[in-house]
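Hey, I'm writing a tutorial for new members on how sequence and structure tokens pair up, and I'd like a real worked example in the thread rather than a made-up one. If someone can provide the structure for the chain below, I'll link this post from the tutorial.
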Amino acid sequence: MKNNTLTIIKKEFARFFGDKRMMFTTILMPGLMIYIMYTLMGSLMMGQFVSEDGFVASGYVQNMPEELAPMLKQLPVDWKTVENDAVAEIKTSLEEKEADLLVLFPEQFMETMLSYEVSAEKAAPQIEIYYNSAKPESADVNAMLHAMLEQYEASLTNRFDINEGQGKYDMATDQDMTGQLFSMLLPMLMMTFMFSSCISVAPESIAGEKERGTIATLLVTPMKRSSLALGKIISLSCIALISGVSSFIGTMLSLPNMMSAAGGVDASFYTFGDYAMLLGIILSTVVLLVSFISIISAFAKSIKEATSTCSPMTILTMVVSLVPMMGSEGLKSIGMLFIPVLNSVLCMNNIFAFQADVSRVLLTIGVNIVYSGLMTFGLTRIFNSEKAMFSK
């Protein structure tokens, strides 16, 4: 038997690129829709991030007055005393999200505050509170402490101030804000559009040929079933990869629009290496999805059946894309990278959050390719089954 893999690839390319409607819906529409949706989201949506219930923040305090200690200890904060020489180190920990709060009371705060006259020209004693708004726990306890102190201050007729100096009290950097916003939004939308583009390609090529009866002609020709399966997977993957690139380009072009709508978000922090890793994840994931949908289509009797069978997977893909928001330590396990789709989502999340590990990205790409190869072999076995290919 001849190896007709190249012939099958040419046939699929001719069928696809000869259909202008299919080219538009598969290649142009995904990137265009991503661009439009991300732009609208950047213009209309305000991100709100909340911490988990029952959290205990890590807080540091200097010169805590004994009179205020009971009030501060009502907060869900594990307070530690800090000396002058450690203040700079704690601020660095806040920037790196290793600490949640730093509160600096001036020396003899209560005595100075109680003796302060509102009409006096001398400035009121000031409490400085440093936090990191990119970390939900830090932002939450900062808001709680502000509300508590402002209520206490109001009862004393404005005898002290909070963060009235010229210093920077929010230790979150612009890069932190960018990573937090993009890592929450982009993986879910990219996975959804990639899965949708794969569904628009694979069922038409395999289930469609079964429905029209043309698959029978291919199966009776002197052709290896492995050549047919490989030709289908390669051609459909190439077409879907183009759609994946379209999604990638649409995402990159939409980042400035999201940046302009969200203060402190700057997409220029992403490097060429980040884009390269993201593109590698997108391409390997598209091949994996095409292989999976091809197997579903091979068992289906019609395009409608194949599409309806795969449609619930779109919802599952969206749900899996939300898993990184759980923030569980278990998600950092190397074993998570062997779970298809979830591994791609986790890598995308890490890339957008500036926490990507090249070795984990390469492992994910390799795992996706291995799974795709196994499913290609499975498709070959299905093509060899008359019961599967000619059942009515």
